[in-house]
Amino acid sequence: MNYEPIIKGNVKEFSVKPNLLNYEEARESFSWDDIYKELDGLEGGGLNIAYEAIDRHAKTSLREKMALYWEGKDGNSKQYTFHDLYTLTNRFANALQSLGIKKGDRVFTYMDRTPEIFVAILGTLKAGAVVGPLFSAFGPDAVKDRLQDSGARILITTPGLVATVHEIAGELPALEKIIIVNRRKTPYELNENEVSYERIMESASEEFEIVKTEKEDKAIMHYTSGTTGKPKGAVHVHQAVMGHYATAKYVLDLHPDDIYFCTADPGWVTGTSYGIFGPWSNGISQVVYEGGFSASHWYGVIEKYQVTVWYTAPTAIRMLMKAGEKVIGKYNLKSLRYMCSVGEPLNPEAVVWSVEAFGLPFHDNWWQTETGCIQIANYPLQDIRPGSMGKPFPGVTAAILDEDCKHELPPGEEGNLALKSGWPSMFRIYWNKKELYDSKFINGWYITGDRARKDEDGYFWFVGRADDVINTAGHLVGPFEVESALIEHPAVAEAGVIGIPDKLAMEVIKAFISLKDGYEISDELIMEIKRFARKKLHAVACPKEIEILDSLPKTRSGKIMRRLLKARELGLSEGDTSTLED
Ligand code: ATP
Ligand code: MG
Q1: How far apart, in whole angstroms, are the C-alpha atoms of residue 388 and residue 377?
Q2: What percent of the chain is predicted at pLDDT more than 70?
Q3: Is position 1 within any domain?
Q4: Which end of the chain, N or C, is less surrounded by CB atoms within 10 Å?
Q5: Are 516 and 406 found together in one domain?
Q6: CB 437 within 8 A of CB 431
Q7: Into how many domains does the chain fold?
C-alpha cells in the first residue's frame, strides 16, 4: 500500500477553525441523540426534514439570510432568503393538498435545476408525502420504470420535458396529475390532467401547518445510479436529516459565513442530501448553477459568488484536469477554502493535481444512495493519504469483513466493506424489493457491495465494487488501482478497467482509456502507456490490452459503467441502460 505523498491536513492555514478539531475525541463523545437535540423538531413532537431545512431558520435572525443564489444557464440569476423559501414551500404544500395529496403518497419531480425543484421537493416533504426526484436528462423508459415502480400520484415537470411523459402516460395508471412549471413562459397548452404550477402557487395560501411526520415516516426515495445493474428505489425517513445535518457540519465543515457550491443534481442523492438538506439544515447560503459541467462556468460561479466550500465528483474533477490550469488562471478563485469529492474513487493523481491547481486538496468521501449521508471521509484537519476514502464518520462504525461477512479482517486485508446498521439516514427499504433489502443485512452489518481495506491507522482504501474485482492468475485486482496508475500518464484523461475471461489466468486485465486533448491514437502511444503501467503496478495488475475510446460509458451521475464495457467486449446483453449518459 502506498501512503505517499501525505498531504498535511490544513484548511488554508486554518483561515476558519474546523468544526471537527479532534477525530479520536469526536468518535468517543459523538452521539446521535446530541445531534437530534441540535435540531428543532416539530411543535408538539415529530420531525420533518423541510422544517429543519427551512422553517426553523425563517423564525430566527436567519429569516432574511440568503438561502439560495440561483445562477441560470442563460445568465439570469435570482436569490431567495430562508423566509422566501418558507412561504414558497408553504404554498406548494397547500397546492398539493388541494390536489388530494396525503401523507405517504409519492410525488415525483422531473425537471432541471431551477428554483422550483427546491420548492417542490421541500413542499412535498411539508405535505407529508414521499418525494422522488428524477434527473431531467432521463429518457421515457427511465422515467416510466421509476414512476411505475413507485406508483407516483403527481409529477412536477416542465413544458420542455413533458413530451417524454406524454409518450408513456398510458402506462402509468397511478399518475393522476402533472404540474407544469413554466418558468420561461414557453407557449404551452395544458392537457386535461395537467395544472399550471404558477397558477396553483398564486392561489395557494402562504400559511401551512406541516403535516405531522415522525422520525420513522418515509420522506424521500432515490433510485440508485444503475452502475452495477437495475436501479433500486432506496427509501429514507425524516430522521435522515440528522445525518445530513451532522455530516454537512463536520465533513463539509460548513460555517455560518460560508457560501457553499454543490454541483450535484437533486436527481441524485448527493443533490438532495448535500444540495438541499445538509447545507440548509445548517442555515448555510448556497449557490446552484442550472447548467451542467463546464469548467469556465463553474469557475465563473465560484468567482462571482465568492464560493468558500465546494463539493463535486471525481469525473468532474478529471474533466477539470483535462481542461487544464490555463482556464483556472482566468478566474479569481481565492475565496475557496475547502473542497470535497464523492461518487467514485478519487484517483490520487486528482488530489495531488488539485493542490497544484487550487492550492487546496480535494477531500474524498464515501457513501451510497442507501446510506443517505457520508459514512467515510477525509476531515479538514486530518492528513490526507491520496487514494484513501478517509475514516468513518464519528457516528458510524465501518469494518472490513471476510467472505462470509461473519468476521472482521485485520488491517491490510481486503474484504467486504460493511457498516454497523442503525444510523439515522440508513435506507429503510428498497421500494418493492424487500428480499433484496433483507439480503444486504448480515449479523447486524449492512453489506455495501464494495471491496476495501483498512490500514493500520484506520484509513479506508477503496478496492472496487464486488462485481468489478478481477481475478487474474490467482490474484484479486481492483480496477481502481489500475485506473489510477493509468491516469497518471499525461495522455490519459480517464480509464475503465475490466477482467476478460482467459483460459490460463481465469481473467486478464483489459483497460479502456480516453485521451486528453492534443493526443492522437497510435500503437506507439498504447505501447508507451503499457510500459508506464508496468513501472507503476505489480506485474499481475498490468493491463494486457489497452483500447482507446472517445469517451467511456458513464451513468448520468458520472460513474464509469464497467459492466457495459464488459458486456460490449464480450458481446453480452447490456442490461438496464436507463441511466446511461448520451
Ligand atoms: P447501483 O447501486 O445502481 O449499481 P451505484 O452503486 O453507482 O449504482 P450510488 O449509490 O449512486 O449508486 O453510488 C454509490 C457507489 O459509488 C458506492 O457503493 C461506491 O461503489 C461508489 N463510490 C461513491 N463514493 C466513492 C468514493 N469516495 N470512493 C470510491 N467509490 C465511491
Ligand atoms: Mg450501489
Answers
A1: 9
A2: 98
A3: no
A4: C
A5: no
A6: no
A7: 2
